[in-house]
Queue: 2 jobs
Job 1
Amino acid sequence: EISPIPQPPAVPFLGNTNLIDTHVPLHSFELLAQQYGEIYKLVFIGGRTTVIVNSHALVRQCSDDTRFVKTIGATLKQVRNLAGDGLFTAYGVEPNWGIAHRLLMPAFSTLNVRTMYEGMLDICDQLLLKWERFGSETIDPAEDFTRLTFDTIALCSMSHRFNSFYSMEMPKFIQQMTDFLTQSNSRAYRPGILQSLPLFGNGSYEEDIKDMKEAAREIIRNRREHPTEKRDLLSLMLGSKDPVTGEFLSEDAIIKNLLTFLIAGHETTSGMLTFATYFLLKNPDKLRKLREELDEKLGPDDGEEISLEQLGECEYLVAVMRETLRLSPTATARGVEPIEDTIIVGGDGDPANPANKHFMVKKGQGIIIQEYIQMRDHRIWGEDADSFRPERMMGGAFEKLPPAAWQPFGFGARACIGRPFAWQEAQLVLASIFRRFDISFTDPSYNLVIKQALTIKPKDMHLHVKLRPASA
Ligand code: MNH
């Protein structure tokens, strides 16, 4: 027996659009999850229907690459205005996805990412220096981590320096990228007709896109005029043929992928660093434990650079990062669609259990997987699912999690290609700042407020930062 998928009452023309807060859609989805539970559907303007799944059991079934493929939902369609058929926003059937995937997978492997450590140290040092000199003033970690992740991905992938630590204002390119992603997110829930009007900052949208593409084209032109020995991702994309098709990536495809690295590689990682800082400051006992580990494994902070080998020994640090991404997956949702009409089973997901409802999803039906919500599913994570407890990710427990339970990097063929890169960068930065500094909120009563562009970040979180006493 097939159960209908519940839907909140719709209003004429708008459907359920008015239920989604355009500034922080996540909060609307949390509220709807409380009201409707494991699954429901929404109808948007123009009659487009979206199914939303919240429970781990349903998410696990939708994470099966033999039954579901990535869908390009309303938001990613907007991001395609800039990134086109680059890796992240391509339809799986677009040939450029396959070509770029095959060329870039080895470049983003854990092994090859180790060769990028030098670049990561370079930019991390710039952050440390700024915080050392500036820490008595107010530090905006979300901004400084954005400088860091942006500068790092640009340096490591295309040997380009944005030098954003050297200006008080965010460099124009970063500002444009942030605006573009914020706009893409809110445009997704807005009727097409309004998108062409010069409202809500639409005016600069097209111009920003043009500028950013031009900046990427300029970087490529520059590289062609001044070839280097450096085997960064740009030279790889310029110089390698796809083993399957024998084709080079076109200049246009390279531009889209460079912009893709910048889009996909900065917000997610900087958000993760900011959330990790938040959770550690809110949980002093966890911070103390991390500090003890860092002091033991990294030794005294005497100006020697932290090595990758040392980072590899910091297990609690990894648990902190995993737990941060469980509670605050900076990419809060992802979209899939069934390859054929198919049935998914609610409750505990067992088709034989008569208590579980069966739902039909049609071929091509857009489904939003709410990672933020499913990674707090009490069935998997227990009664304390909402608390920050890195210990739950240690001692073999992480490896024993049910399939698809922890998936802040997505899943399957379209999972994050930048995971080893983000991981190594975050290990270095978190180890560096918590070893070196005593960090506190400027407002000791600060509680998390979320802001959302394409991804989520803590809003209005400000820090004071002091060097730890030398004896530590
Ligand atoms: Mn990343 C895909 C999360 C860092 C480049 N990334 C994804 C997806 C998630 C994700 C989730 C899957 C989206 C979907 O199914 O629609 N990514 C993250 C997180 C971090 C992150 C949480 C950091 C923390 N990502 C990075 C970095 C880079 C990067 C760093 C690049 C340098 N990500 C990508 C690309 C894809 C992707 C490219 C698309 C891969 C594909 O579809 O083939």
Job 2
Amino acid sequence: LFEPQDGGAVLERESDQPRIARVLVEETALELDYIIPEELAHRVHLGSRVHVPLQGRRAIAVVVQLLNDSPHAGRLRPIADTIGTKAMFPENLLKLAKWLSAYYLCPLRQVLRTMLPEAVRSRPESFLSDSHISLVKMPDTDELEKLRKAAPIQVRILETIQANGGESTLSMLRKELPRATQVIHVLVKKGLVTRSEVRVERDPFQEEEFMPSAPLTLTEEQSAVYARVLQALERPADSPPMLVFGVTGSGKTEIYLQAIGRVLEKNKTALVLVPEISLTPQTIERFKSRFSERKQRIAVLHSHLSEGERHDEWFKIHEERADIVIGARSAIFAPLENVGLIIVDEEHEPSYKQDENPRYHARDLAVVRAKMEGCPVILGSATPSLESFENAKSGKYELLRMNKRTDGKSLPLIRIVDMRLEKRRTKDGFSILSEKLRLAVQARLERGEQSILFLNRRGFNTALSCMKCGVTCVCPDCSVAMTFHKSDTKLICHVCGMRKLPPRKCESCGDPSLSFAGFGTERAEETIRKVFPQARLARVDTDTMQRKNQLRDTLRLFRSQKLDILIGTQMIAKGLDFPNVTLVGVLNADLALNLPDYRAAERTFQLLTQVAGRAGRGERQGEVFIQTYTPHSPAIQFSRHTDFDGFAEQELEQRQQWHYPPYLHTVLIGSRGKEAAHAEFSLQTLASRLQKEAPPDLIMGEPCPSPLAKAHGQFRFQLLLRAEKIRPLVMHLQKVLAGMTFPEGVIVTWDVDAMSLM
Ligand code: ADP
Ligand code: ZN
């Protein structure tokens, strides 16, 4: 599916001493040739950023090809200068950029722009600096006494430096004495101290202490997996990507750590991707502790760093001062060289897909990059994506399983609460907390144990379902829940575009009590406060966790048992380990299930499995309650028995039958604009042009309104394309798009391998 297609061809070196550089001008997307002047020859590489003269000014460009000759050879101008001495895009990264550009149909210029952090792009090498102060000699006793009378502050500074072992920094001295700068100036003149400028790293973990940790003795299951990983490290060329499918707590991370240890022994580097949400201080601590003797050589990249920190972490990698990089999605673009291993933890996480241009999937890029780097890649998960699982089944990936937790504990008991049987207790006919779950929480409060209540609020328009039989209105042709659109009061299928009036009574059982499923964490919190006025509770979602460190602080409170109940969204579903939590409640499992998306069941299964993994991590057995109006649905039944294989088997069968990924690729085309008619018409025109000379395997729906039909004052439409082979489809799309102009104010986007239809 993801063969890197000769991405290197254009970039190939044509001789050892190229004279001409083909550059991509960053602002204009022009590709132009320039002469490499003699004096810059050692600094102009593939992937270098350079200044070039362009229309009477200087422009910034990236060298994308080195040549011996150019069609315009006589008329070329020289490159003016390079930015830094080393290429900002290592050769393999430039290859990856080309590949990404072709696969996702995104201009190379935009890809290169995304690859560099903003601060690196606009202010490279803007390091903070400080002055290092060294004591040359202390004045002898007499002089010192004289000085103490004449200039007591000078003496104080000298004594401070002396007490500090004869070394200090200006910033430290200034903390003690704001006037230190002037005083140091005088002391330097007197020859008593020396001063030299040093670069200061903005280290996000400066204040933290890390206890060294030693590798653990692996369990039998771990040893078997690790042995395979070691083999792959020895012979990467013969090793397909490895899918480590291990239940939560089976010790995947321990395997990653030991594998990285081996990579470092071979003097190579390792790149680790984790979802943003699990890039918690605990995760980073585990790495920094294991590799404590070289913790300075671990770079961390994620979106909560300040611009300055990100700049410094990037340069740490660029200047080869890091050999482990841990980061979220965009860390796949870390300018790491000599890569010996790439790991993608929680490979099923949808957040690996970027939802703006370039719409890349970091897990898929990891597989491609590993191939380019000639190193093994490990994808890890407790609930693999069906894409990866299918790749493993077909032999493209190697499946490595771990079924037991290292602590030998059994998985928590999972109970399904059938909400159809619950009395309607709140005004709008929705029961937020079932009697069973209420009693379970009550029991925890009495025993001093903790509970997590989970509510996945994603989705804006909600599905229409029957309160009596639980059936949701589903499109007859596509097997996805239809979405109610308030604007035209119709149910619409987002795959094929079919519309219909919402039924007045349930189409399955005839009961008139149809209702839109939907309440959020905020309302849940209010209700639970009323039910348990004595409980100490906190809510964790993107609305309440705006402040920096707020999430960390709340989780600390919870961990130290100063809170009884945590209510939250996905933010609390992953990677958290609280030994005193013995109860997890899922307030509405149907929310994810009813998304207008063929991946709804997969998401639900993953979410429920993950949430359940939060219960009973300590000494006591955990209990999980799943509230649902559709207790019979496969995603819920299979997750109840933590039966991934059963779920995957039946879900994959469905996907095959309905022509969905992983059996077909998708391209979701969107159009939006202030004028609904213009936006819709643009898609219709595009659709009819796509029909001509289309690849034989193309399946195309009708343009229809997006689930989010209007946003930011713009009307949105979409069109789903599916095909077995993605490359011909993308090339066809590219050709059609090149020959079209859209009305002013209409924006057309495309998402290759779209993760959701929304
Ligand atoms: P996963 O990443 O699969 O969820 P972890 O690697 O985080 O699993 O391991 C879960 C827990 O088990 C951690 O506390 C870890 O320290 C511990 N652990 C892992 N491997 C071993 C081992 N071989 N022996 C003892 N404890 C282990
Ligand atoms: Zn349909």
